[in-house]
């Protein structure tokens, strides 16, 4: 059970690092998108969203498996009758529980940060588009106004 737990913990560690990198790249790609909205691929955000969802499900499954193995280790520790062995097993079990708790906390924190960034981007994205369209539209209107004023001056 300890071997399985260590294997799952290592796999979870790798997945959490990849998950964190994905969330970081999402926010940095969104930040860069402000300047060059015409040059970024349209499906970039949605493909990252799908990748996020897939990785989140995989991590949740691994956390569930690790929880099951920790529960089995707890059952075995409670059934073992040797007092000296029991203390060592309890220490090992507590260490695996702490690792599981740390991974769970890190996953939920990263997921919450990603969702907050995505929600903020969705809310502010439309505002940015409105501002850009206003700026580009007002530029055209200013040019037209200048041409009309110039024409008016010529007619005078």
TrEMBL record:
GO cellular component assignments: cis-Golgi network; Golgi medial cisterna; Golgi membrane; SNARE complex
InterPro entries on file: Golgi_SNAP_su1
Major place of residence: Golgi
Residue runs in coiled coils: none
One of the protein's GO biological processes: protein transport
Signal peptide: none
Membrane topology value: Single-pass type IV membrane protein
GO molecular function: SNAP receptor activity
Subcellular location: Golgi apparatus membrane
Source taxon at top rank: Eukaryota
Sorted UniProt keywords: Golgi apparatus, Membrane, Protein transport, Transmembrane, Transmembrane helix, Transport
Chain spans, region Disordered: 26-47
Family: Belongs to the GOSR1 family.
Its job: Involved in transport from the ER to the Golgi apparatus as well as in intra-Golgi transport. It belongs to a super-family of proteins called t-SNAREs or soluble NSF (N-ethylmaleimide-sensitive factor) attachment protein receptor. May play a protective role against hydrogen peroxide induced cytotoxicity under glutathione depleted conditions in neuronal cells by regulating the intracellular ROS levels via inhibition of p38 MAPK (MAPK11, MAPK12, MAPK13 and MAPK14). Participates in docking and fusion stage of ER to cis-Golgi transport.
Protein name: Golgi SNAP receptor complex member 1
Species this protein is from: Chloebia gouldiae (Gouldian finch)
Organism ancestry: Eukaryota, Metazoa, Chordata, Craniata, Vertebrata
């Amino acid at each position: 059970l300890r071997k399985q737990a260590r294997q799952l913990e290592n796999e979870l560690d790798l997945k959490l690092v990849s998950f964190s990198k994905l969330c970081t790249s999402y926010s940095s790609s969104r930040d860069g998108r402000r300047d060059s909205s015409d040059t970024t691929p349209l499906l970039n955000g949605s493909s990252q969203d799908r990748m996020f969802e897939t990785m989140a499900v995989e991590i949740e499954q691994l956390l569930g498996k690790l929880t099951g193995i920790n529960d089995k280790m707890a059952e075995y520790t409670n059934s073992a009758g040797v007092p000296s062995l029991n203390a060592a097993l309890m220490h090992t079990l507590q260490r695996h529980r702490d690792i599981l708790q740390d991974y769970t906390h890190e996953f939920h924190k990263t997921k919450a940060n990603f969702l907050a960034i995505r929600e903020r981007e969705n809310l502010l994205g439309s505002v940015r588009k409105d501002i850009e369209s206003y700026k580009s539209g007002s530029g055209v209107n200013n040019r037209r106004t200048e041409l009309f004023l110039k024409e008016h001056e010529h007619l005078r």
